[in-house]
Amino acid sequence: MKRLVLASGNKDKIKELRETLEPLGIKLLSTYDYPELEEVVEDQETLEGNALKKARYTARHTNLPSVSDDTGLEVDALDGAPGVYSARYAGKEATYRDNLQKLLNELESVPEENRTARFRTVVAFVDGDQEKTFEGVCEGTILTEPKGEGGFGYDPVFRPQNHKQTFAELSPEAKNKISHRGKAIEKFVKWLGAKK
Ligand code: ITT
What we know:
Elements (H helix, E strand, L loop, with lengths): L1 E5 L4 H11 L4 E5 L16 H16 L3 E10 L6 E2 L12 H11 L9 E12 L2 E13 L15 E3 L11 H7 L1 H16 L1
Parallel strand pairs: 1-2, 1-3
Antiparallel strand pairs: 3-4, 3-5, 5-6, 6-7
Helix pairs in contact: 4-5
This protein binds inosine 5'-triphosphate.
Inosine 5'-triphosphate binds next to strand 3 and helix 3.
């Protein structure tokens, strides 16, 4: 069985990708299998830069092919912010709740028709000298107040296009089918399947 390391300690991401890769005969390891790995600082100016930085570091230290992802929320009325800074929009130690509240405050005077936004994910794969990235985008709208208990991050205020519910109101399976991350991973897995 081939092995691949996911450069993340996020248990939801690990579980989701493991279920997708197992049928392809690929064993997915994660940073939990390599406790000596240090946390990679996401200080690049693009999602691609951060995703590649994490996958390169992990590939170099494990000598195995590695994969990582970085995600940002781009709000049109805020000229694309918070974008690559989505995790620390309200400050370095900000919680999901702090970030979401800051977003709602910034958009307070913006009418519904101008609250368009999109989630963008870049998945990066690094194997020795080989590097490849895959992008997934999900268009939607930012609501004026949070709705739903599921998901994480900005999910309670993001309503994907052609849906009545927010990401936080959809089941994880329903979200994965249409989400930015789901689409990027789908492209990656297709490419990986064809490469074998
Ligand atoms: P890693 O350990 O894999 O680096 P992370 O917490 O840094 O995980 P991301 O880089 O994927 O997560 O995402 C950056 C921020 O964007 C994250 O803190 C959330 O606030 C938000 N975010 C990412 N994916 C999201 C999603 O599917 N729904 C809502 N918010 C999301």
